[in-house]
Amino acid sequence: MTANTWKLQDAKARFSEVVRKAREGEPQAVTVHGKRAVVVVDLDRFEVRPKSAAPKKTEGFAEASAKYRLDIDFDFDRPLYMTFPQKDVFDDSEKE
Question: Which end of the chain is more exposed for a tag (fewer CB within 10 A), N or C?
């Protein structure tokens, strides 16, 4: 077994040492009947943070997403017009 893996009996007998090593930053695994059962870790490393609720609308997703955080004000109601080249692409006079 590795230095950070303990049999259950040894972990119980030397629990203070298991906790000390876990608090130093190295998680300590405890085995039961040769199979990994639990891991002892430092509380600072095991901080569980609940996830925030996902936005239900596309607008909320875009606002919450860091990828779409721009300082540009979009006006989606403004019509967009296409500009075409001045020269007529289908001008047959050049073929002659």
Answer: C
Interatomic CA distance for residues 77 and 79, integer angstroms: 6
**How many residues are there in the chain?**
96
Q: What is the pLDDT of residues 21-41, one digit of tens each?
A: 999 989 999 999 999 999 999
How far is the C-alpha of 48 from the C-alpha of 29, rounded, in Å? 19
Alpha-carbon distance 61 to 55, whole Å?
A: 5
Domains of the chain in sequence order: 5-40 (3.40.1620.10)
Q: What are the angstrom distances between the C-alpha of 28 and each of 6, 12, 36, 43, 62?
A: 7, 13, 10, 13, 42
